[in-house]
Design brief:
Length: about 270
């Protein structure tokens, strides 16, 4: 089974242009019928559409409300690279094959006021940075699924805070997401945490601990980028980052992130 993650950048190209290619991106990343695809930076209006475009079952959760629910999409279409999520909001989506049974779904806000203030004191952040950290809602949403062969999985998708100001911020969110996932996991469930972690494995204490500290609970699937697919409880291949040529369309480089994937043997 292929498990893939991609930050869609709201359908923008790199560098951003006037036109968005959101549907083309969704069709491209699902063309070979992967088992699971985790998407980030999906415009809020498209949360209910990506499943239809992909021919897959979509489980989506909104992270930012649209400022102009009706007009936001139209205004953004005038120049996708300029407006992005400022008007039409955004969210994250987990795509699943139609024959998968969804048993349960949950969502947690990773950067609540209480969490950011607590972590801010622990990390020695100034008040301005702590307030900035709280400003844009970041979530981890999960689905518990059962495959046709009766394998049970818990799949989590997250998009952590940007690391530009301090890589410890997204790393703290990743640790919280991991704790959230492991607390709700069942015995013999395959666990997947995928998404845009906004921190590389070299700069993440959380990734180091997950992949090295506890041999009996080792996770695998980190990539060289800030996008990862971590897996526990099943054999998994090394992460593959798509080369640029695989995400070009008409000479345009789609998104400012490349899809990352692993193959799980279930």
């Amino acid at each position: 089974m292929i498990v893939r993650t991609w930050n869609l950048f709201h359908g923008n190209t790199s560098p951003p242009g006037r036109r968005a290619y959101l549907r083309e991106m969704v069709e491209l990343v699902t063309a070979d019928r992967p088992g699971i695809v985790c998407l980030q930076e999906v415009p809020a209006w498209a949360l209910d559409e990506v499943g239809t475009w992909a021919g897959m079952r979509a489980v989506g959760d909104r992270t930012r409300r649209p400022r102009l629910p009706v007009l936001g999409r139209r205004i953004t279409s005038l120049h996708a690279g300029l407006f992005r999520s400022g008007l039409h909001g955004q969210g994250n989506v987990i795509l699943l094959q139609p024959d998968v049974t969804v048993r349960e779904r949950k969502v947690i806000t990773l950067n609540t006021n209480v969490f950011c203030e607590e972590q801010g004191r622990r990390l020695g952040l100034d008040e301005k940075l702590t307030r900035w950290w709280e400003a844009e809602r970041r979530i981890c949403h999960t689905v518990k699924i059962e495959l046709p062969n009766r394998t049970r999985m818990l799949v989590a998708n997250l998009h952590a805070t940007s690391y530009d100001r301090d890589p410890r911020l997204p790393d703290a969110e990743l640790r919280r997401a991991t704790s959230f996932v492991t607390r709700q996991s069942d015995l013999k469930e395959v666990l997947v945490i995928a998404g845009d972690f906004n921190v590389t494995r070299e700069r993440s204490q959380t990734i180091h601990d997950l992949t090295h500290v506890h041999p009996e609970d080792t996770w695998a699937g980190t990539s060289a980028s800030v996008d990862h697919v971590l897996v526990r409880g099943a054999a998994v291949t090394s992460a593959r980052v798509w080369p640029d040529d695989e995400r070009r369309l008409g000479g345009k480089l789609l998104s400012d992130h490349a899809p990352v994937e692993v193959e799980i043997r279930v």
